[in-house]
Amino acid sequence: MANKxxxxxxxxxxxxxxxxxxxxLAPRAPSPLVxxxxxxxxxxxxxxxxxxxxxxxxxxLGLHAYDTASKDTLGFTHYFKEDELSVFKSAMSTxxxxxxxxxxxYTFNVNCKPTKDVLKECGDKSYAVxxxxxxxxxxxxxxxxxxxxxxxxxxxxxxxxxxxxxxxxCKQDNFKKFVTAGHVLLHEITxxxxxxxxxxxxxxxxxxxxxxxxxxxxxxITDARRLKIRIDNGxxxxxxxxxxxxxxxxxxxxxWVQKFCKKDFVPPKEGY
Length: 272
Hints:
This protein has 272 residues and is an alpha/beta fold. It has helices at residues 45-68, 74-77, 85-95, 116-122, 164-169, 181-189, 193-199, 220-232, 245-261; strands at 5-9, 36-41, 106-111, 126-131, 143-146. Helices cover 36% and strands 10% of the residues. The protein is globular, with a radius of gyration of 17 Å. 45% of the residues are buried.
């Protein structure tokens, strides 16, 4: 079966991707923390430093989301239904897992030098392209390809702040401004079949567990919120948030901001 590719677009522009109805979900209790290992390929020193920081921020987002999410927490309920909490927390525990190349529960590659074909997929609006098919065997390690925009884009230029930096960063009043490189990689990692299988997603008709993109023409994090609003309003047969990559990334970022910036971002009454 041909591999499918998932694209994450620039978070201030239209998300490139595709949508289909997700299969039924069987929620499970949160999995224990697991170990992961990312191999970086064709990355120079500065790129290695940036990817390393983004992976650390991704784990940080996952850890605090796992600790703080509840069925009543706005950062969770803006993106997920109450009965999806166990799957969300299982995903966050998986993402928050420590790097340990000696005993990885799953592996993936991060490649900083996309092939010509991947560059075509990147275009000028995508931060990364993820190879999201089912691995044929243990040697078939899937890759997150880093697009050129990742190094210069307004969102991926940002890292999670600490110390005095956090005070200034928290003054922002638009939740879309809190997107970081770690947020983008968190989104991407949920596309990986092995990772989504670990945190409890059921396979689709092709046997694939990874999440999908959802786009209705705005920024990904806004579209993820719109998806939840439309589900709450009973608007048709919609893709489940648990099968939507940006729902995980959006919730993790918003929960982090709620915890460290003491901010809640309530949707406008008229919607988005």
